[in-house]
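seq:
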Amino acid sequence: MNKLITAAMLTAVVAPAFADRIELGPRPAWLISQMEDGALKDKLASCAGMEPKQTLFSIAHRGAPMMFPEHTVEANIAGAQMGAGIMECDVTFTADKELVCRHAQNDLHTTTNILASDLADTCVGPFTPASGDEKATAECRTSEITLAQYRTLTGKMDAANSAGTTVAEYMDGTAGWRTDNYTAAGTLMTHAESIELFKSFGAKFTPELKAPAVEMPFDGFSYEDYAQKMIDEYKAAGVPASDVWAQSFDLDIVKYWIEAEPEFGKQAVYLDDRYSASDDDEGLVDHMDAATFKPTMAELKDMGVNYIAPPMWMLVTEKDGEIVPSVYAEEAKAAGLKLITWTLERSGPLASGGGWYYQSMPTSITKDGDMFKLLDVLAQDVKVEGVFADWPATTTYYASCMGLN
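struct:
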């Protein structure tokens, strides 16, 4: 069946059927059971019988990619069912300059079935099998195919097996704590289709303009044209600027929106990747040293930036055995910046400390239930506006229990 028809059918028929049915499943209760005894555990446990609500605090990160192929219709239906009040489309473009939802312009080899399709010969880096010490490689870009070709692909879990000696082995790399149970259908979307889908859920929007993998301008399509086209698709859909949090890691793009589209610019989000946890690398931010914040939080505010979004670990540190706000968080709030953070439920089991997303709290994160401990600090002490999650049920449960918007 044609992918456009399938996406339209899912949006028009399936999505509304779930719009008012928030179902969080067993995971929040299981996480609570893994918590240390105390007031927070008691409070969260007391909400077991509550009616959860859709909440802006719960932001669906690419849908629900802990279990569903990211940026697919099916993943976003799952995220909406779990009460996410804001939903994300990472935006890139095809060869015919159409905007589509993919985490990167050059990730089709890990997020779709392109290598096993007739479009494999469009890949700028054909599949090369692992051999000896050499890992398997491939690179496939949306900018090498048309929108019509893009629609023939099926989304899969974002993964690759670098030891693969065949295409099938290379594509079979899903982490053991995720699943391939929901990969039979992975309906890809354009950006415009994501707008209609999210509207059908009554959700708001946080599109991220992804850095191109190709040199810009691309066939006369400039970086500014690309940034403007993303905003124009919200205007064409009649979406008010107050419902959109446009994101970019490129501060110049955020500044472009502030200047060219001031209403949308009010909620433009600067995704801060200037991070360094402990290094002295020049130009990087040490989240505990305000002298490394260049530009400073006050300077960002003076540029018109109102929202800043670093990874979770930048917003906290440890003190006397407790998770507390970092200097970065304190400086941002003092400057009047609003904070959003990423990404909960992306690290797998936390028994080993959670890895990169939890690096600033090594003694505090020892088990899965500690996710709620961190979430509580982010909400109550750091006072973030929202949290991206790969499984929005967790953030929705917390926000509904605590009475957050």
